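Example 3.2
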Amino acid sequence: MSYSLAEIIKNQKEFKDKILFFYKKDFQYAKQQLSEINCKDVFIQKQKKKLESNFKKYKPIKYVERFFFLHPKRDLNYYVWWNDVKQEPCILNYNG
């Protein structure tokens, strides 16, 4: 589905807190799931350490903010839209 710029800006202003909260909680859940992986397999242990290292560098709020239209360093191809029916955000392409 394609939205006008006015619709995108209105949706993002109205649901900004919900969008950011959703991604923050989603990130916390992923970290929790990763910490619960207990396996003796060397390959899996190495991959888990890589992911844990990446999680330390990753800032979910800063990452998501670039999909807001009014952000100074916004992504030129994608934007975030709050789906009120599903109660979750989705990343959409400006080109539809």
